[in-house]
Amino acid sequence: MSEAVRDVVHEVITEILPTVPADRISGRQHLRDLGADSVDRVEIILGVRERLGLAEPLASFSDLRDIDHLVAFLTELGAR
Amino acid sequence: MNVGIEALNTYCGVARIAVPALFAGRGLDPARLDNLMMSEKSVALPFEDPVTHAVNAAKPIVDALDPAERDRIELVVTSSESGVDYSKSIASYVHEHLGLSRRCRVFEVKQACYAATGALQLACGYLAAGVSPGAKALVIATDVSLVDEGAAYTEPAMGTGSAALLLSDRPHVLALDLGASGSHSYETLDSARPTPTFDIADADRSLFAYLDCLTNSFRDYSDKVSGVDFATTFAGLAMHTPFAGIVRAAHRKLAREHRIPDIAEDFARRVAPALEYPSRVGNLCSGSVYLALASLIDHLRPTAPVRVGLYSYGSGCASEFYSGVVDAGSTAAVGRMRIGEQLAARCELTFDEYKNLVAENATCLVPVADKSIDPDRHAGVLDRVGARRTLLACTGVTGYHRKYDWITVGAA
């Protein structure tokens, strides 16, 4: 499950940040480290939420440490 | 009873800096300009404070009233996150320098960028109750910016200034849909001003809260008002604008949720007109949504009655979606304030001039027993203001009492 979620996260990131090569995305990075500004980060979270069919409030995504944390949180939401 | 906004004016300073120049001066990444969607920001001068901003926004409204009408202003509320004293309100100074009747309720409210909307709703409820037929209320949102280079990309987004709203049973600018409002509020620390010298902000927490609250306050509005359709009910939308780019993202979110087929067209037609002024001024805090409303009316230029939606959000957090009706009278009433001309007349600062002013403005809200401020020291900027106008200026503090005087600025 978490690999499928990671694929979706990477897919959305590369759509919102087309200049970031997919192989440059590491789980230990924050979206900020990839050059995502605050609007990009909103679009990325909205994109993965929509693609995974989740209705979780955006506020729940306020404390993400890095992309691994985002994937783990999305995986947990999907299992609920 | 028909109540709402009789007159609306803004004061957005007499100086500005181009946002690309600020980016260059601070070494910020120009690739971020697209999502910021800001072209200029207003900059205060060191003799300006929340009191002068408020008076300078409200004075043209009050001056347009005859003495009998002026005496019907029975309520003056200032909303601000830039308080000048823990006890004494900005409103007390504003009431004095606008020369209003002493038979008046005077106080100040605070709830970050939402506060003016809370005050407007309570004041309109009072007016609609009819306990004082013909009464008017003045709600004035007023704030100063304290951000410097430490705020990074927030610095270009923060404006300075005030929005003044005269409320009455003659709502020439916006006839409020009484009772048609939705709220969504909860405790969070997304941004705050813990001391008189700096702000704290958590960008993700704040923007996520802003967007969650938009969806939820609109849902509450729709639950209370029958037949609401996001796509067709509103001819225009004025939203709290921390920076124009987030309003574009907010519209996109709501448009997807309501299955708008052509989101870009919808944005250009119903939202972009409300961003013209905010993208030239920056965030006015609780006045921001009313600068957006002025922009919407000045650029939509309604000729027949149409409904507009307003979204107000304040960190902390509190939010509200509400609506009202604008028409040809709104176009005339807002147009009389010549807001676009006043923005164009602001003196354009160099980056070095801007940097020096930011350093001086940093102590604007710090309480001191005594100080003297000489507006003439800024003649080099004031002489470059494109339109001659009379403004209230802070000339100093004596025994913690702020002192004010009228000055004339602009080329003769």
Mean pLDDT of chain A: 94
Question: Helical element count of chain A?
Answer: 3
**What's the SSE pattern of chain A?**
HHH
Major sheet of chain A, described briefly? none
The fold-level CATH name of chain A is Non-ribosomal Peptide Synthetase Peptidyl Carrier Protein, Chain A
Point out poorly predicted stretches of chain B. Answer: none
Assembly type of the shown chains? heterodimer
- The total beta strand count of chain A reads 0
Q: Taking Cα atoms only, what radius of gyration of chain A do you get, to the nearest Å? A: 11 Å
Fraction in beta strands of chain B:
25-35%
Q: Strand fraction band of chain A?
A: under 5%
Notable features of this structure?
heterodimer; A: 80 residues; mainly alpha; Non-ribosomal Peptide Synthetase Peptidyl Carrier Protein, Chain A; 3 helices; 52% helix; B: 412 residues; alpha+beta; Peroxisomal Thiolase, Chain A, domain 1; nine-stranded mixed sheet; three-stranded mixed sheet; 26% strand; globular; phosphopantetheine binding (chain A); PKS_PP-bd (chain A)
3D architecture notes:
Chain A: InterPro entries: ACP-like_sf, PKS_PP-bd, PP-bd_ACP. Chain A: This is Polyketide biosynthesis acyl carrier protein. Chain A: Keywords: Phosphopantetheine, Phosphoprotein. The complex is a heterodimer of chains A (80) and B (412). Chain A is mainly alpha-helical and 80 residues long. Chain A has a single domain (2-79), classed as Non-ribosomal Peptide Synthetase Peptidyl Carrier Protein, Chain A. Helices cover 52% and strands 0% of the residues of chain A. Chain A is built from three helices and no strands. Chain A has helices at residues 2-16, 38-51, 67-79. Chain B has 412 residues and is α+β, with helices and mostly antiparallel strands. Chain B has a single domain, classed as Thiolase/Chalcone synthase (Peroxisomal Thiolase, Chain A, domain 1), CATH 3.40.47. Chain B is 35% helix and 26% strand. Chain B has 15 helices and 17 strands. Chain B has a nine-stranded mixed beta sheet, with helices on both faces. Chains A and B meet through helix 2 of A and helix 7 and helix 8 of B.
